[in-house]
Amino acid sequence: KAKSEGKNRYIFFSAEMIEELEKRIETEKILLDCLKNKDFKLVYQPQVSSKTGEVHAFEALIRLKNYNISPAEFIPVAEETGLIVEIGYFVIEEAVRQIKEWIDKGIEVKPIGVNLSAVQLRDESFVSNLKEIIKKYSIKPSLLKIEITESALMEDKERNIKIIEQLKEVGIQIAIDDFGTGYSSLNYLTFIPADYIKLDKSFIDKMFAKEGKKEVLDGITFLAHQLNLKVVVEGIEDREQFNYLKSKGCDYMQGYLFSRPVDKEEAEKLFAKRFEV
Ligand code: C2E
Ligand code: MG
Ligand code: MG
Ligand code: MG
User: Fold this and answer.
1) Which of 3, 104, 152, 214 supports an S-S bond with 207, CB 3.0-4.6 Å?
2) What keywords tag this UniProt record (predicted)?
3) Which residues have beta carbons under 5 A from ligand 2 (an ion)?
């Protein structure tokens, strides 16, 4: 761009831009290192049934073993650099391996959800790789749940919906993640073959804010149920919100009110737990 504007032009980088760039490069180095040494781990956060207080499922969330960097920071870097594909396979295999380990221990396991990046959907052999992993550990496919955001799905709509359909055929469960943050076209819910929508924390917080319209939540829950989708609410921190959302028929709740994401030893104890609802 600068070139086309003539010869004597300069591009200025602000100190913040350079700092940001340096941070990204540093993060990329860390991720490469973690991949080499398999220095990732998963933590698990329960989704609690609003009606019974039982744990219905877990969401697996990635952490770096030796660094305190949040996924919100490193996942975008992993996506830009393409490292997310390998990281994503690690996450899926680790979750499936963990399910198998729990089954072998005689635990009555619940489904585990993993987050999927749009970048990974571009991998031609994604579906067959996923089938391979499930076969390798011979678990029931319905014990695996894929969480994908609405904006990721819309990146290459036709193709991605086909992939989701294939995953459904395998028997994998599908959740639309971060609902309420992107386009939020209620229309597309009618043609994505999902099992759950997950209402995003920021969306819920907005609805509960002073000028918010929490009645909207009625409509969304109603529509979701009409379409045979269960509603999961993310980021529930207080009782008041919980009670309201429960009264509106939201099916499952995930948030600090019940539990933070915990490591596998801790998660194992939660299968049999009944939370107060
Ligand atoms: P997400 O999929 O929407 O996950 C929910 C996030 O909300 C998690 O943050 C979780 O720890 C946090 N959370 C849950 N309950 C509460 C609550 O009551 N209050 C607050 N303030 N936060 C709550 P986390 O683990 O930092 O992950 C952030 C995002 O990073 C995830 O958002 C997801 O988009 C992405 N991510 C995490 N793990 C993976 C992964 O393995 N693969 C990919 N592609 N993305 C991942
Ligand atoms: Mg998620
Ligand atoms: Mg989410
Ligand atoms: Mg979210």
Assistant:
1) 214
2) Cell membrane, Coiled coil, Membrane, Transmembrane, Transmembrane helix
3) 115, 147, 177
> Taking residues 232-259, what's their average pLDDT?
96
**Sheet strands (E) in 35-97:** 40-49, 55-64
| pLDDT, position 50 | 98
Q: Which residues contact 262 (CB under 8 A, 6 or more apart)?
A: 43, 44, 45, 270
CB burial of residue 55 (10 Å; 0-12, 13-18, 19+):
buried
Cα 111 from Cα 106, distance rounded (Å): 15
Whole-angstrom distance, CA of residue 85 vs CA of residue 96: 17
Which ranges of 155-249 does DSSP label H, i.e. alpha helix? 157-170, 201-208, 215-226, 239-247
Q: How far apart are CA 44 and CA 75, in angstroms?
A: 17
Q: Is 128 exposed, middle or buried (0-12, 13-18, 19+ CB in 10 A)?
A: exposed
pTM metric for this prediction: 0.94
Q: Using one digit for the tens of pLDDT, what is the confidence trace for 207-237?
A: 888 888 888 888 899 999 999 999 999 999 9
Mean pLDDT of 253-271: 98
pLDDT at position 6: 58
Q: Distance between CA atoms of 92 and 189, rounded to whole angstroms?
A: 25
Q: What residues are in contact with ligand 1 under a 6 Å CB criterion?
A: 45, 61-62, 70-72, 75, 88, 91, 115, 117, 147, 177-178, 201, 234-237, 254-256, 261
Are residues 245 and 233 in contact, defined by beta-carbon separation less than 8 angstroms? yes
Residue 7 tokens, joined: 């010869």
Say whether pLDDT at 2 is over 60: no
State the distance from the centre of ligand 1 to the C-alpha of 45, rounded, in angstroms: 9
How many CA atoms does the CB half-sphere of 29 hold within 13 Å? 6
Whether the pLDDT of residue 110 is over 70: the answer is yes
